[in-house]
Amino acid sequence: MLDWHGSGMGVMEMSHRGKEFIKIHAEAEADLRELLAVPSNYKVLFLQGGAIAENAIVPMNMLRGHAVADYVNTGEWSKKSIKEAGKYCRVNVAASSEDRSFTYIPARETWVLSADAAYVHICSNETIGGLEYHWVPETGGVPLVADMSSHILSRPVDVAKYGLIYAGAQKNIGPAGLTIVIVRDDLIGKALPITPSAFDYKQQADHDSMLNTPPTYAVYIAGLVFKWLKKQGGMAAIERHNIVKVAVLYDYLDQSGFFVSPVARADRSRMNVPFRLKNESLDGAFLKGAEERGMVELKGHRAVGGMRASIYNAMPIDGVRKLVEYMKEFEAQNA
Length: 335
Ligand SMILES: *Cc1c(COP(=O)(O)O)cnc(C)c1O
What we know:
Blueprint: H1 19-36, E1 42-47, H2 50-62, E2 68-73, H3 76-85, E3 90-96, E4 117-123, E5 125-126, E6 131-132, E7 144-147, E8 164-168, E9 179-184, H4 201-206, H5 216-232, H6 234-255, E10 259-260, E11 272-277, H7 283-292, E12 307-310, H8 317-334
Parallel strand pairs: 2-3, 2-4, 4-7, 7-8
Antiparallel strand pairs: 1-9, 5-6, 8-9, 10-11, 11-12
Helix pairs in contact: 1-5, 2-3, 5-6, 6-8
Bound molecules: pyridoxal-5'-phosphate.
């Protein structure tokens, strides 16, 4: 932290234009490209503003003269994207699972896409509702745009099936402050004239994501995480691990009559597992007991209530086992 590779400087002290940081930045990009097998006709951008800023930046860059964009509404994060995009274009909600409280992903056959959409937007892992696409929607040549904030790097992804992928760093990548955008290069260069230069993908691509000062320390730590992931064996290995890890929790939930899972089986997220106590009056006691055992951040989002275990790459399988042990104990005492 205080002396990077004998340079006498910590990364926080370096100029982002110095040779040391340029190397850190370039290596982070190269490692991310390798991990996700990003094709060479895609730009990898390291930006700022998080996924919520991308909700505006995506339409500003991706409308390309079109008047309408298609959005699939699968929960709280989709809703935010839809609302923000509405400032820049007509939004067609092509499908929604709001009818059943966002507990499933609408089947592709039910989507009603526009004839002239600029792109089709999905949230490929709904963090709050705990839904994940385990398939890539076919959009007939219209660019597919995905908010992957909460499951990027948890599994392999066929980047070529997407026009654009974006993700905030703070779930599976590193510290907050870095936003990753992976975009096919023929889609950029047609941003709305009002687009801030720092949020114009083409301008950022032309400046190697250094049109403005990048979040240098966040890029550095993200780069270390990429190296850690490579050491684990890359995306195929981390996916195998995540499948086993999430099953520890769902196998228990599925046989319990005391805890329930609201999510449709086929659409369960491997990163975010919402669950409820049948007797909601015990929620407080459950959370208090968990905290006493060192397990925190289990309260569900205020939008949906109940409990949620977020088990990103950084959560070891023993952490999930410990949670399940506690749930068993709590069930035995209170059922
Ligand atoms: C956490 C999260 C966000 C939040 O984005 P920020 O701008 O970083 O606050 C957006 N989308 C999804 C799917 C998320 O999980």
